[in-house]
Amino acid sequence: MTEDPDADALGWGEEIDPTHAEAPEPRPADPSHPRLAPGSGSLLLIGYGVFAGVYLLYTIGWFAAVLRNTVTLSGLIPEILYQFGEFLAIVAPALWLGAALLLTRARRPIVRVLWLLAGILVLVPWPMLVAK
Amino acid sequence: MTVEPTEPAVRAPHRWQRIAVVAPFAVLYGYDLFEAVSDTVGVTAQIAMFNANAVSVGLAPVAVPWVALVASLLLPPVVFVLAFWLGRRLPLLGTALVYLAGLATVAAATLSLGTLAGLLAG
User: Fold this and answer.
1) Closest CA to B116 of A106, A122, A16
2) ∠ CA B92-B98-B103 to the nearest 5 degrees?
3) pLDDT tens, A23-73?
4) Residue of A97, A102, A104, A122 to mutate when probing chain B, most B C-beta within 10 A
5) Interface predicted TM-score (ipTM) of this complex, two decimals
6) Is the confidence at residue B92, as pLDDT, over 60?
7) What is the DSSP secondary structure assignment for residue A33, as one 8-state letter?
């Protein structure tokens, strides 16, 4: 932009403006940073969205299971720790998601996807799915 | 002009700091193991008593859900070792997150195993 906004309308922008017909070609991608195949980025994004949805459903499932659970233990400390365990079960999907994203930051997307898949297998809210 | 040595942006946590983070989790994982042991003892004793009565009145005896009991015994130590291995190079907050996620996984999987054991026993 120039100092005078009216003057902008009279120019074609900077030389490096990619919309400028005579602008230099964009630099080729750095070969030391392998890029994903075109389209796989948005596919991954959709995949992560699906994973996030399943993990959210699991959280709701565990919440429902804990509401339905009528187990009480004798003794204050065991009861407190049992209820803490129930609370942990509710937040387990969110914690797994966080830990998986943290542990696979610098890894390939497939490693992250495998971790998220493992969480879906391990954290199925069986107490909610199985009718008593 | 001398340049003052600058501190690195993220310092590696001291050994005692790491121990301070891991120790409370070790206690909680240990409690989970204790709970699994007392469950195993309690469930086998209860089923033995039930079976003794069931046989005397002509009912079919109930099998002990050994798979679920052994799995719930293995869960806390195995997940603790996994958390230790995965979190050993992370900063303290990341280490804590990994141990907490492991503890939550043990809690959820133990509840699931209890349900599945009941399902298998019919």
Assistant:
1) A122
2) 125
3) 555 555 555 555 556 667 888 899 999 999 999 999 999 999 999 988 888
4) A102
5) 0.83
6) yes
7) S
* B88 secondary structure, DSSP code: T
Question: Angle CA(B116)–CA(B120)–CA(B121) in degrees, nearest 5?
Answer: 115
Could you tell me how many residues make up chain B? Answer: 122
What confidence tens digit (pLDDT) does each residue in B57-80 have? 888 888 889 999 999 999 999 999
Give the gap in angstroms from C-alpha A88 to the nearest C-alpha of chain B.
5
Q: Please indicate whether, in this complex, the C-beta atoms of A89 and B119 are within 8 angstroms of each other.
A: no
Give the 3-state secondary structure of residue B48.
helix
Q: How far from A48 is each of A19, A88, A110, A117, B26, CA to CA, in Å?
A: 34, 23, 11, 11, 32
Give the tokens for residue B38.
């007392």
Q: Which residues of B touch A (CB under 8 A)?
A: 31-32, 35, 86, 90, 94, 97-98, 100-105, 107-112, 114-116, 118-119
